[in-house]
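B., you asked whether I could sanity-check this one before it goes into the benchmark set. Here's the sequence:
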Amino acid sequence: MTNNNIKTKDKIIQIAKKLFAEKGFHGTSVKDICELADANISAVNYHFTSKLNLFQEIIDNVSEKCLANILSVIEDPADDFEEFKIKMKILFETFFKIAEKDWDSLVVIFSNIYFLREELQKDTCEFFDKFIHILGNFIKEGQKRKYIRNDVDPEVISKIILHIPQGEIEDRYLIYGEKPEQFNKAYQKKYINNILITLIAGLENK
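And here's what the prediction gave me:
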């Protein structure tokens, strides 16, 4: 692939991310993407074969980045509850950092993937399942080490933890029209601290 082809492909991806985030998958046409990317429709067909495959490549790229960042936080079990809280704090902070670096991709995932689950390849949608599984095992380890209470379901708690930053990111964008550079850092810190106080502290086996 020539440098010009690479540049064209990258530009199509960047423009598509922006439009998918703003207008949704179904509200964005290949023509819209090509007009803003200054590319021919044939270029989309050449690099991606279809709009769905273009969308899938965007999802796959950000899913891999997200999973790698989150895995680095929870791949090793915490030795005690204090370390567990620290790792949870880092995990929530990581979600916001990802939003700051690649905001459009996160909006694309959170706002579109549920509506396209049947159309996308199976492994594309497995990002969320993997997250639930990995975090669930992290919580189970805490139960084995007796610092997490045993009367909670690790899978249910994992889903709640996933939806906390997802809901906040969606609210900031869809309701308040804010982007990461507009996020109030003091509020973000207070938001995470309140999660730790209400949800995470409630998991402690006292």
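One thing to flag: The two ends are 60 Å apart (CA to CA). Otherwise nothing jumped out at me.
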